[in-house]
Amino acid sequence: MMPNNPMERSSKPLAVYIHVVIWILIFASPLIFEDWTSHFSWKNYLYHVEMPVIFCIIFYLNYCLLVPQYYMQKRYVRYLVYNVVMIAGFMCFQHGWLLPYMREIHEATQNLKPVNNGFPRPPRMVFIARDLVMLGLTAGLGATIRMSSQWQEAETARQEAELKNLRNQLNPHFLLNTLNNIYALIAFDTEKAQQTVQDLSRLLRYVLYESQLNHVPLCKEIDFIQNYIDLMRIRVHKDVQTKIDIQTERNSQTPIAPLLFISLIENAFKHGISSTEPSFIHICIREEKDTVCCEISNSNHPKNKSDKSGSGIGLEQVKKRLELIYPGKYTWKVSLSEDHRTYTSYLSIRIK
What we know:
8 helices
């Protein structure tokens, strides 16, 4: 995501909070589950948390250092060697000195004698093998979480680059269609063509600046759409029925991705108008609770293959942008009437 995205800014602090809470729960568990009514001392507490301390060190050495510096750089052998040496060192430290020392302090503090309740104590290798597995799993967990985070960041960067590329494609596509309209107007009304150029400059200002944002207020997008439709009407014969129905608040601040509906409207004007047959275009944009809907119906007059008035990339861009911006939050249906005379496009976007 772009740096000015609120979700981007909030994701990293959230991850830090999650780490902090999890480790607080781990280190507080001896205080919760052990019976401290008879006696409490920090030495006894340390006896219970010496393993979590080692887990924490191994986890963050992998998470912060070994994975980004070695594994993600494809230096797998060195990454593995460092982990083996680190785990072996902690095992020697723990079972060679720390564990016997902490057990001795614990028993002395609690005035306890070693008791086995009549059952033979498991061999020491069982405890060593158990701790070895636990340390290995901790290292693997740190690596897995860090790699998933790296892959997520890479995927986010890829999606942002693809979305930016789609925007760069959309701008000239939009400009080409509008210039074609002005070109047609110059032939019979020069004064109106000059006014239209001014209108176009206002629309281009929106395309160049507002469309670079991830989201814009719905009211701005509606104003842009209405101005754009006015430009498209230049080439439309007076007998063509055009109906625009806007059912949104006049100053609606609902955030919406810019320029999503324009390609649908372009498609309607391209395929919905004929110079010889009755034609109509009906556009309805409405806001319902947390949903913004755009429904367009038009007469169906498909262009022949020799018609180069449009590049055909508009609808494909809409699909790609929807997948990038609103995955799982949109419904887009297109249909053709039984007599093939009416084409309908319905797009519904869930904002929250």
